Amino acid sequence: MMVTFPVFLAFILMGMPIVFCLGVAAALTLHLTTSTPLVVLPQRLYSGLDSYTLLAIPFFIGAGLVMEMGGIARRIIEFATSLVGWITGGLLMVAVVAGAGLASISGSGSADTAAIASVMTPDMRRRRYNIDFAAGIMACAGALGPIIPPSIIMVIIATVSGQSVGRMFLGGIVPGLLMGLALLGACYLHARRNPGIYKDAEPFSGARVRRAFIAAIPALLMPVIIVGGIVGGVFTPTEAAAVVLFYGLVVGLFVYRELTFAMLPKLFLKAACTTAAVMLIIGTAAIFSWLIAVQDVPGTLGRFLRATSDNALLYLLFVNLLLLVVGMFMESIAAVLILVPVLMPIAVGFGVDPIHFGVLIAVNLSIGLVTPPYGICLFVACSVTGRKVMQVAPHLGLPLGAMLLVQILITYVPDLVLYLPRTFLS
């Protein structure tokens, strides 16, 4: 432990890619502190990837790309516009509603942010919105992706901790919806505080809602297939990912007809490259996690914390603060694979439900996706809108404050997370 973490942190500060930080730190630790042959490294990398549950990741990544390229994202955004676009500052709320809708399909915060920002930014500019605040809201809306099922991060958390992916998915529904409502409240407060900017409200039209809903029905069925299929026991989360990818291809090719067979090679190549990058991080982090377990870091830290305090609420506060800081500087998948094996056993020892704790980790890391300096959703939103991170960052206070309120609420009211898993998958 005295070698592993200092070497890892040194590489992080040097700006090395996270894969090399994990792999080289693990190799150096193994070589300097043990007599274990280095051949164990590729063995551990392979065993870290040898999981049926992880098969869901490439399918969800593919579904996110189909959503973006096949017209599915645009239909969901148009439906969200018909629902809340008539409110003052309504396009900000549209971004949040669309973010929740897209999160229920792709499971990737960066993909959701890119889809929302690319579709909505031109209209926001035309209506003279505050683009800096709008970019922050779109980043926060995209960050709902790791919370609302399906979620790639939740798949990995469940795999690492040995929990049910289906229960983890159900546990994320209420926190995700609460997060969306909190962001809607932040949008409303901002619009009311700046009435001179947001004068774009249009009359509500039931006919427009009806037309947009009918057009969006095939897209809206995707989350129903995922959650309904898992809860109903029709298929496993991994099978649900494959089914929703196939369904998305059918909708994009034959219903909306915005996806063509000529586009499929590019789509699958992009999905394969993204999956390869994710899997490489998972594999090298598995080596790192194995070393942490061998060095008994969870046991040592657990004994220290119990000697300090036996209060589970204080432990959850400590975890929240730790994950918020980690989420600011580290890629979410790597953070999960490094920290969950350490923090989860301690949480269970304090009597915290593992599903509650897993969802709490996902929520904290989703907040990290929009916090400077390395929030990936913030980077994507700034890239699409053409703004700089330092221009957008001062406008993040209100939406981040709303997200933190929900984080505190679900931390100390675990039934908000556990009600649905206990009801449907007891």
Automatic annotation (TrEMBL):
Residues 7-415 form the TRAP C4-dicarboxylate transport system permease DctM subunit domain. InterPro entries: DctM, TRAP_DctM. The chain crosses the membrane at residues 7-32, 52-69, 76-96, 133-157, 169-191, 212-234, 240-256, 268-292, 312-329, 358-384, 396-420. Keywords: Cell inner membrane, Cell membrane, Membrane, Transmembrane, Transmembrane helix, Transport. It is found in: Cell inner membrane. GO terms for molecular function: transmembrane transporter activity. It is a multi-pass membrane protein. One of its GO terms (cellular component) is plasma membrane. Belongs to the TRAP transporter large permease family. Part of the tripartite ATP-independent periplasmic (TRAP) transport system. The complex comprises the extracytoplasmic solute receptor protein and the two transmembrane proteins. This is TRAP transporter large permease protein. It comes from Stella humosa.
